[in-house]
């Protein structure tokens, strides 16, 4: 018997639609004001544009050298994700498959690192980064993202590895497969759902991060998209028309990426067994 469509269901649907529209309001303001002249934004930011100035995007493209900023953000995000997946997946698998006091303590240390605010380690990090010549370098920023991203990534991989039947690994070992081969040929392919989840979460974080790149990257040619877009919001001057257009250009790639892979988030976090 199919479920009945009740008044309660109808009310919940209406509430869901209203909440969804509320969350879309900021996107509305960003989008419509990115195609307005500056004066129109000051007069009424909520009004529909009388004319659509897509030239704002062309100006922003040239002013902040968007292709360069996009490339910097892409390189940092891609290589940070590769390193975080490799380090966290292997570390989590080793901790789960070698149970003991040391593995438990190490896991607790990594998980505890997630609750440490970035502001408390910001100054020591910059001093250490300067001593190791990691500042003003994309490679240095990527290495720092390894340190800050491993705790959460390892935590997610650790929980998922526990669902992988150890009998599969034991069978491969009996057939002569090395531990390295067991991980890459047997275990890692089974970690695909949580791997995609880790990549999505880290991409949203790294792509939109502002504070760490601001501290590490000084040269203009090394700026990421958030840093480039912030140039329109100075202390005494705020170019809302240019700045909002830059924000739209910056968030569009990551929104497309998220919408394309969002279904894997639920699969990765909620998966409780390996078929």
Automatic annotation (TrEMBL):
Pfam families recorded: BPD_transp_1 (PF00528)
GO biological process, one term: transmembrane transport
Membrane-crossing residue ranges in chain numbering: 12-32, 69-93, 105-126, 138-161, 182-207, 242-261
CDD domains in alphabetical order: TM_PBP2
Protein name per UniProt: Carbohydrate ABC transporter permease
Protein family per UniProt: Belongs to the binding-protein-dependent transport system permease family.
Every ABC transmembrane type-1 domain range: 70-261
Membrane topology of this protein: Multi-pass membrane protein
Cellular compartments annotated: Cell membrane
Location (main, coarse): membrane
InterPro entries referenced in this protein's UniProt entry, alphabetically: MetI-like, MetI-like_sf
GO CC terms: plasma membrane
Keywords attached to this entry: Cell membrane, Membrane, Transmembrane, Transmembrane helix, Transport
